[in-house]
Amino acid sequence: MPAYRRVPAGGARALGAALALGAALTATLTATPSAAAPPDAPHYRPIRRLSVAENGGHFGAALSAVGTRLLVGAPNLGTAGSTDAYAYLFDPATGERIDDLRVEVGADRWWQFSVGAVGEQPLVGIAPGDEADGLDGSVTVFDEAGGPIRTICCPGAIALGVGEHVLVGGAGGGSLYDPASGNLVRTYPIPDPSRRGVLSLALVGRSTILIAAAHPVGIHMFDVRTGRAVGFVGTRHGDARRFGSAMAVNGATLAATENPQVNVFDVGFGVYLGTIDPPPGLGGASFGASLAYAGGLLAIGAPSGGDVGAVHLHDANGNVFESLPADGAGPGFGRAVAALGRSVAVGAPTDDGGEVVIFSPCGDGAVDAPVEQCDDGNADDTDGCDAACRIVASGGGDDDCGDVDGNGARSVSDAVQILRAAAQLDSACGPARCDVDGNGAIGVTDGVQILRAAAGLPFTPGCANRTASERSSRAFPP
Question: Which of 175, 196, 260, 347 has its CA at a distance of 20 to 30 angstroms from the CA of residue 375?
Answer without folding.
Answer: 347
